[in-house]
Amino acid sequence: MAKIFQVSARAGMTRVVEPIARSLLRAGVSPNAVTVAGTLGVLVGALGFGARGHLVAGALIVTVFALTDLLDGTMARMSGGSTRFGAFLDSSMDRVADSAVFGAVAFYLAGEGDRAGMAAALICLAVGGLVSYVKARAEGLGMTANVGVAERTERLLIVGVGGLLAALVHPAALPIALWLLAAVSLFTVGQRMRHVYRQAQLVDVPGGQG
């Protein structure tokens, strides 16, 4: 099944960020520095604005800095490929940023008295981590799990659009987006586990560890 954020759109964004990536590399900025800066920007947007109810500003800041995921990856490719530490740092910073975003949303909705929305945000936080874990665990076992309708970019887009609509159209838009995201994320976990199961069936021997 195709991802929500289509490959063509990703390729288009990559073409946009390539000139920026070249300029930063010429200036001596490393991909790892961009990774850390992007995470700090997401933290400011989520905790400094979103958690305090400034949904439009928070969503815009988070979206802009979340795009550094494309920027640091493009820079790494242009400079000869990502290092092991760079890949580790990028994955770790993604988890920090995601936790800040959904933690801030849960905090905001709790303050608004929306317990159902807060529950949805916490589910998104937990399942989002599981989506990433399943992929990392599969790769650690020599398999792949790069499938699913909602990877990290899609998840951030959904919650970002929900925040904007909640501020500009109707407050119910954010909880609705969160429940939708929770369902899509759970479906993605199922897709990845099924994908790994099919690969494992080809290499596992009978009587092995289950």
UniProtKB/TrEMBL annotation:
One of its GO terms (cellular component) is plasma membrane. It comes from the Bacteria. It is an enzyme of class 2 (transferase). The keyword Hydrolase does not apply. Mg(2+) 1 binds at residues 69, 72, 90. Mg(2+) 2 binds at residues 69, 90, 94. A CDP-1,2-diacyl-sn-glycerol binds at residues 32-35, 73, 77, 83. Keywords: Cell membrane, Lipid biosynthesis, Lipid metabolism, Magnesium, Membrane, Metal-binding, Phospholipid biosynthesis, Phospholipid metabolism, Transferase, Transmembrane, Transmembrane helix. It catalyses: a CDP-1,2-diacyl-sn-glycerol + 1D-myo-inositol 3-phosphate = a 1,2-diacyl-sn-glycero-3-phospho-(1D-myo-inositol-3-phosphate) + CMP + H(+); 1,2-di-(9Z-octadecenoyl)-sn-glycero-3-cytidine-5'-diphosphate + 1D-myo-inositol 3-phosphate = 1,2-di-(9Z-octadecenoyl)-sn-glycero-3-phospho-(1D-myo-inositol-3-phosphate) + CMP + H(+). The active site is at residue 94. Homodimer. HAMAP family: PIP_synthase. This is Phosphatidylinositol phosphate synthase. It comes from Micromonospora radicis.
